[in-house]
Design brief:
The complex is a heterodimer of chains A (about 110) and B (about 160). Chain A has about 110 residues and is mainly α. Chain A is about 80% helix and about 0% strand. Chain A has a domain at about 50-105. Classes of the chains: A mainly alpha (about 110), B mainly alpha (about 160).
């Protein structure tokens, strides 16, 4: 007898809880947006392209790879810069000597 | 623009900036450290790998040549002014102007001869192979510009001056 009452109370409590569940209003144009997404997935192309790009960005911008790329760029820039600097210094020194020994009136 | 694409382009721009920055800094530092603005002969030492004794001998020759060179330049400039004065306002080339031009040309030839003699002396103070290279390089640098002008004015460029 006591058990039956307890079961009834629980059922009533559950019903009460179900009724009192808070419902938040859907965002504006929710349905329209859902349909647009579904259409996008069905058509395939933009979604696929985006996925491909996302995957590529995720692959390329990994910290380890990014640091390696920066290191390679700095190294390459430095090596080429030094080479160019040597050439510039050489040309300037050559021009200084030629200007000293061969006046402009002869050249 | 989509976000992944923007990130990718941003990363690319950052990469270019990193490369350009490293290049520019390395170039400037290297050029500044290698330059020796106080010494006109720095190029000879570097380019022809001269030792101290060779450089000292060449410096002696250089210092002996420079006053002669300045003197000759002053004479040429003075003669050039005379030519300008003679030609100023004249409708025709007068015999006096012609004479001044001949004198100017003679002075230039003498100066050039003196310069070439100096180059020959300097080349002899260097090791044989380096000396040959120096002489060829100096002739190219000082006489080459005339050759270019003469070639551009010759028949091959379509400007015949009657040299047949």
């Amino acid at each position: 007898m006591n058990g039956m009452n307890q079961q009834q109370d629980e059922a009533r409590l559950l019903a009460l809880l179900r009724e009192s569940k808070p419902t938040s209003p859907l965002p504006p144009r929710f349905q329209e947006n859902v349909w647009r997404r579904i259409e996008c997935v069905e058509v395939g192309q933009p979604g696929e392209r985006r996925n491909w790009l996302d995957a590529f960005v995720n692959l390329v911008l990994r910290p380890r790879l990014a640091f390696a790329a920066v290191a390679v760029l700095v190294l390459m820039g430095t090596v080429l810069g030094v080479r160019e600097g040597v050439q510039t210094a050489r040309h300037e020194a050559q021009a200084r000597y030629v200007t000293a020994v061969a006046p402009d009136v002869l050249r | 623009m989509r976000r992944p694409l923007a990130i990718l382009l941003g990363a690319l721009a950052a990469g270019i900036a990193v490369f350009a920055g490293a290049f520019f800094i390395a170039q400037q530092v290297c050029a500044r450290r290698m330059a020796d603005p106080a010494d006109d002969l720095a190029w000879l030492r570097q380019e022809f790998r001269l030792n101290d004794a060779e450089l000292a001998r060449i410096r002696e020759l250089h210092e002996g040549y420079m006053p002669k060179c300045h003197e000759m330049c002053a004479k040429i400039m003075a003669k050039k002014r005379e030519v300008d004065q003679t030609l100023a306002g004249a409708a025709n080339v007068t015999p006096a102007a012609e004479q001044k031009l001949i004198e100017l040309g003679t002075l230039r030839a003498q100066c050039q001869l003196q310069m070439l003699r100096h180059f020959a002396e300097v080349s002899q103070a260097m090791p044989h192979e380096q000396g040959r290279r120096y002489l060829a390089e100096m002739q190219r640098l000082t006489l080459g510009s005339h050759e270019q002008i003469e070639q551009s004015m010759s028949g091959s460029a379509g400007h015949s001056h009657g040299h047949k």
